[in-house]
Structures are given as structure tokens and as C-alpha cells.
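Researcher: Next sequence.
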Amino acid sequence: MSEPKSPFQIANFRAFWVARLTMTLAQYAMMLIIGWQTYNIARESGMSVGGASGQLALIGLLQFAPLFVLTPFSGLAADRLNRRNVARMTTLLQLACAAVLGWLTFTESISIPALFGVAVALGIARAFAGPALGALAPNLVPAKILPNAIALSSISWQVGMIVGPAVGGYFYDIEPHLPYAVATGLFLVSIIALGFIGQVPRSAINGAQNPLGQMKEGLAYVLQNKMVLGSITLDLFAVFLAGATALFPVYARDILQVGASGLSHLAQAPAIGAAVTALYFSFRPLKTNVGPKMLWAVAVFGVATIIFGLSTSMPLSLAMLFIIGCADMFSVYIRQSLIQLHTPDDKRGRVSSVSQMTISASNEFGDFFSGSLAFLFGPVIAVVAGGIGAVITVAAWAQIFPVLRTTKTFDPPDHLLEGKEKSESEGA
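Model: Next structure:
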């Protein structure tokens, strides 16, 4: 029987794609409204723009803290436990969070402490869901079409990022509790789709057999593999410095003055750019000079962030955010392909957990950093300084990790290709 040419020819991947799409739709609908409610409650209570920005910073910190603490355990869980079951349980926890916020909003009893508490629960759920889903994806398709699968998986993520904020913003304008009600239903669909994923290939864990030793092995692999380490930390520092998403409520309400619907547009613009880029790569996979192109993409990300920070025009802001999304997806596509293809399957869960921690550090903890800078110096200075920092990071990483400048293709080392043949089946 001939190997499939498209990931969508594989039933397990189709179920995975639907699960990730609906999960992402729900997550981004919730995240937008959590930030919007937090900022508005703070402003309506008499806080200044800076003080309310500080509340947004705390939301980011509360989501990051569980990820930081639980990363070693969540990666090990993804390598030792049934990855599908881990994903189902974490999606169920997110469903419960959406239902709670929906009820509190409907009864007009929503408060900043309640939003903070849910932020912590969502951080716990994402700590375990990310490594499980990240490690599961490569098990669903042959290595030859893995870059295509990553692009298609990224499309589901980006479509969720585009439509999710629209679901959040537009439904919030109708009834404030509706975004959470819709998110609850979407999480339920995601759980059902995960249930349709059948048996998938799985490699046995080699090396240390005790949990502590296995956690150390995962971290050691990341530190020793300069390709993986350079790719992960490039994203960590660039996005950590240049993350502007936490300040979207500030720009929507007090700088661009476009309200809740405008906030949805700001959130959608980078996601649209990312989705267009991912769609292109799903048909025309990148094959040459992947390392240098990743560095250039991150540099463009930083420059566009600088221009967005200075803009007081909604059309210019949307254009820059679209470019930010394109550049970010360009680098994400390359980084994820390199990490997945250059990591043995028995370590993918642990390596994915390290990757997720850095992504969370760059996103959620980056939100805390951006919100804190906005509190101290104002939102414009915070965004512009972050964009400059991202450009400097690219120049530094090109020198610190020369392998990023010299990597031409996604081809993994021969020993990883041989190891893929030695796998065992993971039960339902």
C-alpha cells in the first residue's frame, strides 16, 4: 500500500486537526474576553491606564507560573502516559473554566479575583495539553509529510486565532456571557474529536527508567542539541521582548479608541497573516535555506512591532499586525519542523514541554513583562522597546548559534530516521 501524500488522507490526523481547531477557537475566544473584562473592571474601578495595564500583566504571570512549575512533569507525562488521554483530560478542565466564567458573567458576579483564578487553572491545563498534543502530532503521519502536517496543524491553530477573537468580541457585544457559552461547546467538540483518534505508533523510552532521570534526559537533550536549543531560545527572547498582544485592550480602548469590535480586529490581524502563511506552506513546503530564513522572519517581526507601537492609525496598525503574523508563522513553521524532525520520538514529549515552557515564557510571561513596562513607562514605549529588542536578539543569535545560519534543509540526522523504525503501538 502506497504511503499517503497528504496528512488529511490519514483518519487520525483528521480527528487531531478538528480537535486542535475547536480547542484553539475556544481558547482564543476566552483569552480575549478575559483580558477585556480584566482591563475594563480595573478602569471602571478608577485605575489609571498604567494601573489597569498592570492587571493585564498579572493575568500573563498567573498563566505562566503553572507552566513554569509543571513543565518537567508535563513533558514526562506526555512520554510515559497515553497522550490522547492527557489531551482529553486537559480539554475537560478548560471546558470547566469556560462554563464557570460563563455563569459568573451571566449572573453579573464576575470579578478580577475570579478571572485570576481561572487564569491559573488554564495555565495548568495548557501545561499538560501542549506537550501531549505536540508529541502526538508526529506519531500520526510519516516523516516525509511531517512538515506538511505541521503547516496544516498550524492552519487549524491560526484559523482558531482568527475566528476565536471574532467569536469573543462579537458575541460579547450581543451578550457578555455568550463567548464563554460557545467556548464550552467547542471544548466539548474537541474532546469528542480526540476520542476518534485510534492507535498510533509510539517509541519506548530509552535511557533512564526512573522519572527524575528521564526529566533530566529531556532537558539535557535540548541543551546539547544546538539546533534545537538555538531555535527554541530564539523564539523565547524575540517574542518575550516584542509581544504586544497583552496590550491590545489598551490600544483598543485608549490609543486607537475602537472598542470591543476593534479589539477583535486587532487580535485577528496577526492571525490572518499567520494563516495565509501557513496555508501557503501547506501547498509549497519550504525546502532550502531554512535557518537563515527563520532569522530574517524574526527580524521582520521585530521591525513591524516597532511600527505598530508608534501607530495611531487603525489601518496602519492592522497592516503591521498582519505582517507580524506572517513573520511569526514563517519562523514557527521552520522552528517546529526542525525541533520535531531533530528529536527522537521517545524524547518528543519532554522536548515539547521545554519548547512549550519557552513559548509560554515568551507569550504569557512576555505579557507580564510588556504590561509591567507599560505600567512604568507607558504602552507605546513598552511595545517599541520590545521590537528593538527582538531585532537585537536576531543579530546576537546568528552569532551565538551559527548552526542557524548554516542549516539548509529540514532533513534530520540518519540515526533519527533509523530510530523511527523501532516503535511500538500505543493502546487506546
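Model: Strands lie at 200-202, 424-426. The first strand starts at residue 200 and ends at 202.
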